[in-house]
């Protein structure tokens, strides 16, 4: 490839900067430099700790120097927008980028604009903007809602979307798409680049980022040649139980975890949920009191002040152990971190790689991650993860399309600022991947919704948010503008209650439904502290410190993650290897007694077999199916089969679920062999049947609450004065029922059902699973008691049942009864 004189000059500056630091640029970093110098758009794909930030930031700085010399623009103008998915990344990015600019001899300012930015700084950025601004999707849309945004962004030369793989497949990603569409109209020569970890649909990720501007000849994917070595070390139990069940084994392995924590300089302990995070922090501190002051918690419900303190101390090496959730998944650079502990199966290959990458944050360092199973069967996941990494088999991220709630929010945002013409705005949004197939009827319905509330709400003036004069749309009301701005964003959750000490001091937020169960004097653990509930007043939970240790731990909705299809496939592959005698994994060797017991009592299925177990106990008649398709898909198949069985023969079923299989429990026996002759796994009328089986109306109603909030149909209140969750739900349910009765084709109503179908039920994967079953050999066994595979599913079913006995006591009774049948 011929290199121009300009590119040669750029390469010389690039090499000089790396030499100054005592480093040498990786080939992919030089490739990115040349691609940027050629005016191309693109995507950087490189592992954590390999200089991804510098691979784009240096080309941007060098491009300016080559064209303009080492002087800043006069007057000061914003030249670069750097979008990050989390505020925690902003400070690290700013420090690294500001230092690089100074070292290369360019007097540029790198600023930050997030929800944490103070008013004085925000005001200054409008009049004297930095040359580079680091921001989030929400803050970017908030800036678009201000008059004068065209002046602020009109001089942009480059936009970088960091951690694009985290935004793709979410409504926040759609926010980015819409913002990029606006920026392209302001600067047609704008260069757009993304930074992404490896995902299964990298080419599609680029297309989504570029929208209709995607041109294969002018767009490239720059892939790092660096192979990050991931070392998985499973923490194995001394004795594998015959009947595994979820949640109990992890804590029993604590004595084996303590030496890992003691030997490491700094360790991150990842859990899958915030409740798990609180529990593990409590147990570790109880076992290792010497860690007091050197150990911390980090999850999304803790106050920003607490999280920032933890991040700062991680960075400086002041903490030895941090128990955390996905809040620390992303690329914050904590160089003191030497090792990672993963509690329980991460349920996805990409998530596991992201967490493993938190250690060994240098290109030449290996990432060591310890896998701690919460029950013995999860050890198969460790072996499957190792195989998936070896094969580079990583899940794709399905992009979000036709999210009308996000579109409505965006249109009101643009109407608040400069206003818009309908035809120009339609052309703009049609340039995005998310809305490139929007039809004229849908567009007119969206415009009708923001101006008059649509046909169902036109009699209610409070839903007249946007004013139309001929073909121009704008917002007159300052009150509407204020209410809209404070609720820009797509992240919704159950209403949070602030937790504060009576004496003052903010701890964090817990969800309303948990607080509603507390009585004065109740002790609960939160933020690593034992707290005594005093009172709930003005959406604030007032507490005081307590000494008593208590098992009450706040729980949060939506914490459970399903097994990914990629990992499901790898688990089946590992079981196949075990059956064929080709498996060499220590994890499979460790659980050999349990797997052999499953084979003796019933069957250990090959990947071309579907195992069904029919068992009778005192509870009734059990049918266990093992599709290995993850919790969500298993739930869909379970509901579908229960519906079809009950339609042919009157019966009532209780359902139990795990990531590996599901249970149908009934009072009356089922002749499963007879039903199998009639093909109960067919896909005829699948959409209609699955919606009936899973009560799609109720599920859609819950989805509609979030949609109503994002679209502005319901108003959750201003920060600090949020409405109660039950009021929000009641309000959104009212709209849901009204649209269902009078406007069944309403865009937001349709969206609610589509989200249930594709996100919650995962209909494409469900359909694929049924097709897969149709190709498998179905094997029915009749064990005389529960098997190692069926037992954890039974435990999951009884977990939610009320009892004055602990779960452990009830499980032990079950085991005793099973063992008594020997």
Description:
This protein is α/β, with parallel strands linked by helices and 822 residues long. It has five domains: 5-223, Rossmann fold (3-Layer(aba) Sandwich), CATH 3.40.50; 230-390, Rossmann fold (3-Layer(aba) Sandwich); 404-490 and 696-760, no CATH class; 496-545, no CATH class; 602-694 and 762-820, no CATH class. It contains 33 helices and 26 strands. The chain has a seven-stranded parallel beta sheet with strand order 3-4-2-5-6-1-7, with helices on both faces. Strands 8-13-12-9-11-10 form a six-stranded parallel beta sheet, with helices on both faces. Strand 22 (609-617) and strand 23 form a beta hairpin. Helix 28 (696-711) packs across helix 30. The longest helix has 18 residues, at 631-648. The protein is globular, with a radius of gyration of 28 Å. It starts with a helix and ends with a helix.
């Amino acid at each position: 490839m011929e290199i121009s004189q300009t590119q040669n000059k750029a390469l010389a500056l690039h090499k000089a900067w790396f030499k100054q630091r005592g480093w040498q640029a990786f080939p992919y970093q030089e490739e990115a430099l040349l691609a940027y110098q050629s005016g191309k758009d693109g995507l950087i794909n490189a592992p954590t700790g390999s200089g991804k930030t510098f691979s784009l930031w240096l080309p941007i700085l060098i491009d300016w120097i080559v064209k303009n010399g080492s002087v800043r623009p006069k007057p000061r103008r914003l030249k670069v927008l750097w979008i990050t998915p989390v505020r925690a990344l902003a400070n690290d990015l700013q420090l690294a980028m500001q230092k690089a600019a100074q070292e290369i001899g360019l007097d540029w300012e790198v600023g930050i604009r997030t929800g944490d930015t103070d008013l004085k700084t925000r005001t200054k950025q409008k009049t004297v903007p930095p040359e580079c601004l680091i921001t989030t999707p929400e803050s970017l849309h908030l800036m678009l809602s201000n008059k004068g945004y065209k002046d602020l962004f009109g001089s942009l030369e480059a936009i970088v979307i960091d951690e694009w793989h985290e935004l793709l497949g979410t409504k926040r990603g759609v926010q980015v798409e819409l913002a990029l569409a606006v920026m392209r109209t302001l600067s047609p020569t704008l260069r757009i680049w993304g930074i992404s970890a490896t995902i299964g649909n990298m080419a599609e990720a680029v297309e989504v980022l570029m929208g209709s501007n995607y041109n294969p000849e002018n767009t490239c994917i720059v892939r790092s040649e660096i192979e990050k070595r991931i070392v998985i070390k499973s923490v194995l139990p001394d004795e594998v139980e015959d009947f595994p069940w979820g949640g109990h084994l992890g804590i029993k392995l604590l004595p084996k975890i303590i030496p890992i924590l003691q030997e490491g300089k700094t360790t991150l302990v990842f859990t899958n949920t915030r409740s798990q995070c609180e529990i593990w922090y409590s147990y570790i501190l109880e076992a290792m009191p010497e860690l007091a002051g050197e150990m911390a918690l980090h999850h999304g419900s803790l106050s920003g002040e607490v999280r920032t303190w933890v991040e700062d101390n991680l960075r400086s090496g002041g903490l030895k152990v941090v128990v955390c959730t996905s809040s620390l998944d992303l690329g914050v650079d904590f160089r003191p971190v030497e090792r990672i502990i993963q509690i329980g199966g991460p349920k996805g290959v990409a998530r596991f790689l992201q967490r493993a990458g938190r250690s060994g944050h240098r290109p030449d360092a290996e990432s060591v991650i310890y896998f701690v199973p919460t029950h013995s069967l999860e050890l198969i996941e460790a072996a499957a993860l190792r195989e998936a990494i070896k094969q580079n088999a990583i899940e794709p991220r399905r992009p979000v399309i036709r999210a009308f709630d996000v579109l409505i929010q965006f249109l009101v945002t643009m109407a608040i600022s400069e206003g818009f013409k309908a035809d120009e705005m339609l052309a703009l949004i049609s340039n995005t991947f998310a809305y490139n197939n929007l039809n004229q009827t849908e567009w007119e319905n969206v415009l009708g919704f923001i101006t008059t509330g649509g046909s169902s709400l036109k009699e209610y003036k409070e839903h007249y948010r946007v004013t139309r004069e001929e073909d121009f749309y704008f917002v007159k009301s300052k009150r509407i503008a204020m209410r809209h701005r404070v609720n820009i964003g797509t992240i919704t959750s159950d209403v949070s209650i602030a937790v504060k000490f009576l004496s003052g001091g903010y701890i964090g937020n817990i969800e309303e439904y948990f607080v509603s169960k507390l009585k004065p004097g109740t002790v609960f653990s939160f933020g690593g502290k034992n707290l005594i509930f005093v009172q709930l007043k003005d959406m604030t939970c007032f507490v005081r410190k307590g000494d008593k240790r208590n098992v009450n731990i706040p729980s949060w909705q939506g914490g459970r993650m399903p097994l990914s299809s990629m990992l499901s496939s790898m688990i089946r592959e590992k079981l196949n290897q075990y059956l064929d005698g080709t498996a060499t994994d220590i994890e499979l060797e460790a659980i050999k007694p349990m797997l052999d017991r499953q084979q003796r009592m019933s069957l250990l299925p090959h990947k071309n077999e579907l195992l069904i177990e029919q068992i009778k106990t005192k509870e009734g008649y059990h049918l266990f199916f093992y599709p290995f398709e993850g919790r969500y898909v298993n739930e869909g198949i379970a509901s579908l089969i229960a519906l079809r069985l009950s339609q042919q023969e009157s019966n009532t079923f209780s359902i139990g679920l795990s990531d590996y299989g599901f249970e149908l429990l009934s009072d009356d026996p089922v002749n499963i062999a007879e039903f199998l002759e009639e093909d109960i796994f067919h896909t005829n009328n699948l959409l209609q049947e699955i919606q009936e089986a899973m009560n799609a109306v109720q599920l859609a109603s819950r989805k509609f609450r979030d949609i109503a909030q994002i679209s502005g149909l319901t108003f959750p209140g201003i920060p600090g004065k949020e409405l109660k969750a039950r009021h929000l739900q009641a309000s959104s349910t009212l709209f849901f029922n009204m649209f269902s009765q009078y406007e069944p084709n309403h865009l937001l109503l349709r969206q609610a059902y589509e989200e249930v179908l594709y996100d919650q039920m995962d209909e494409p994967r469900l359909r694929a699973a049924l097709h897969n079953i149709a190709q498998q050999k179905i094997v029915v066994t009749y064990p005389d008691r529960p098997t190692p595979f069926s037992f954890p599913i039974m435990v999951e079913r009884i977990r939610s049942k009320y009892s004055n006995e602990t779960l452990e006591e009830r499980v032990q009774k079950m085991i005793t009864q099973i063992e008594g049948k020997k």
